[in-house]
Amino acid sequence: MMKSISKSLWLLLFAVVICCIVYPLSLWVVGQTVFPFQANGSIVKGPDGTPVGSLLIAQPFSKDEYFQPRPSAAAFNASASSSSALAASNYALRNRVATTLGPIVRYKSGPKAGQLVAPDIEAWFQRDRYQRNPSIVQQWASAHNSLASAWVATDSVHTLYVSEWAKNHTAVVAQFIKDNPTIPQPQATDLAIVFFGSFSTEHPGKFPSPVTHADSTGKTTVAIEPITAGTDIQSIFFDMWRQDHADADLQEVPGDMLTTSGSGLDPHITLQNAEFQLDRVATKWAADTKRDSSALRAEIERLLNEKAFAPFDGLAGEKLINVLEVNLELRNRYGVPS
């Protein structure tokens, strides 16, 4: 019996040493000596030497000088990798795609071929008629309750604005409570639909949107104001504009500009996607650096072609661009965006 126990203990000890010490240590030594960059997470550094991210994990870029990654259902959170899992019939998917398209889509043919649709969305919105009926904003909120409530809830500035509106519209709030006796003390999100209905009546052809102001000292403040143009209108109301202009011939947009990856963290976009964004990126860098836009565009396009690669050394798949890698190169060449 003791002999069997002794052998078992020696076997256990041997397995622990091999599996928990020798094998991991061997992999660590090989990784640190042969593949140190990959073994340490493919972390890249900015011009000042500080780590700015991993080439394996996507991250958002807010400035127009940079290329944008694919949409992320995980909000680019590496600890919460996930896909959107939205069905084609889910309006949340349609809305996300539409809000992306609004500011970027262009006409494909006709007298405005190549021009952005965005100015026409704003002009249509200002007329305040959707499918021949007035009050576009009220129609939008009534048709899409969840989107209206989300607008109120996702930003504290929005929530505060609706709360202040409720204090100044006691009769409207009282009527809401009468119509909804199960909500005797409505919160800002509960009032989303009646708020947008009231706003649409008081400010026809306008939408509430955050506006930034700077005082003489340079301090900035953000306040909600009625606006008639801007990316909020282009994004939120593109889908309604499209339904009112079903015959408009629009350019196709690369699919990976609109769809999330399975992980929500894909660090690559297709070369076609990058080229679609090229005009915006080149125009902004030209303004920042005071250089000719066409020359800078050609320069950045060469950079994209240099950095592009396809899986299996070009044997399969479309050419891809690592967004972080290219954006770092842009910053190294042209400095910090203004």
List the keywords.
338 residues; mainly alpha; two-stranded antiparallel sheet; 8 strands
* Contiguous helical run count: 15
Compute the average pLDDT: 89
Q: Strand tally, please?
A: 8
Which range best describes the helical content: under 10%, 10-25%, 25-40%, 40-55%, 55-70% or over 70%?
40-55%
- The poorly predicted ranges are none
User: How many structural domains does the protein architecture include?
Assistant: 2
Note down, in words, how this protein is organized.
- The protein has 338 residues and is mostly helical.
- It folds into two domains: 117 residues, no CATH class; 154 residues, no CATH class.
- Helix content is 51%, strand content 10%.
- The chain is built from 15 helices and eight strands.
- The protein has a two-stranded antiparallel sheet. Strands 3-4 form a two-stranded antiparallel sheet. The chain has a two-stranded antiparallel sheet with strand order 5-6.
- The protein is globular, with a radius of gyration of 27 Å.
- The protein starts with a helix and ends with a helix.
Quick overview:
The chain has 15 helices and eight strands. It has 338 residues and is mostly helical. The protein has two domains: 43-84 and 260-334, no CATH class; 91-244, no CATH class.
Detail the topology: elements first, then pairings:
Blueprint: H1 2-34, H2 36-39, E1 43-45, E2 51-54, H3 91-101, H4 118-126, E3 129-130, E4 133-134, H5 136-143, H6 145-153, H7 156-168, H8 170-179, H9 192-202, E5 207-214, E6 220-227, H10 231-236, H11 238-244, E7 268-270, H12 271-289, H13 293-307, H14 311-314, E8 320-322, H15 323-334
Antiparallel strand pairs: 1-2, 3-4, 5-6, 7-8
